[in-house]
Amino acid sequence: MKRTLIAATALALAGTLAGCGGNDEPKADPTQPPTTSSSPTPTSDAGGPPTDWESNFTQAELAAGKKALARWQKWRQLSAEIYRNGVLTPGAKATLQEYDFWWQRDMVTLGETYEKGGLRRETDVEALWSYVKSVRLNNGGKSGEVVIVECTDYEPLRYTRNGKPQKINKPKHLVTPLLITMTKPDEQHGWMYYETDLKDKKSCAAE
Q: What is the CA radius of gyration of the chain?
């Protein structure tokens, strides 16, 4: 793979996910990164993706990266609906199995913390822009890993528990980059969400 020319700032859906603090606050769910204290950041600081990011990859890498990006965007949309409804339905289970590498763990979270515990993610974060940062293909493209940078606005994020608004901690800068890792474990699976990593910068402008 050609060396990536842009050193992108990172985001957290990387490593393991941590919960928000306090017994009365929402625990982290499989699609949201850990957060800290919040202060307003205007969306004018969002910047934009590097215009030449596609030139960093071979044709095979670029095709894989775009597929992984499309899968992430679809998963983000589907997961927002799942955690807003907060019920472990057969449809939710099937979606987790298809898109989420940690689907077994996250089924427990959905069933216990959301369905039984009354937690709901009423409104999600807003994705402002995204691009593919790195691609690694194995076994002739049958498996691999793709890392995506997404500029994310945390201002809209809202939770309730049993219908009551929940106090949650948000990133220091509400408009901040998120690094998403997508994995393709084998030829039988499509690209699946693996993890996120939050790197709280003043803006999303790529370095």
A: 17
